[in-house]
Amino acid sequence: METTDIWKLLPHRYPFLLVDRVLEIKNDEHITCLKNVTINEPMFTGHFPDAPVFPGVMIVEALAQAAGILAFHSRGRTLDDGYIYYLAGTDRTKFKSSVVPGDQIRLEVRIQNLRKHWMKAEGRAFVGDRLACSTLLTCAEQKMV
To answer: Of 35, 113, 129, 130, which has the most beta carbons under 10 Å away?
Structure first.
């Protein structure tokens, strides 16, 4: 799935779209995505200019966006259907290693529980074989007004 396909499922746009490509998706089960981290991203002007580190909260947001794509895809919906998925909570979030410009983050999200209007999923972010972040995500479906 390319960026233009992702645009049909997520309302995010530059500079806040954090999923560059979907590598694999299996409805009601899991998704694997990529995020390329480049030095020209706006957060690096202030986080931290002399030793740039991709913010942990942005890694969690990237995992949440991957979960949103998985939720939309599993439900057979797009943004045009008038629904949106929000990050409603995180639990047991742990940051294991830094992510820096030049890294490619592999985002893996696996559904633990999928209900009519919400989803719980395990998210893990890797750089190569190195675990950078793990978290449990809760995503809520809402009808857009």
So the answer is: 35
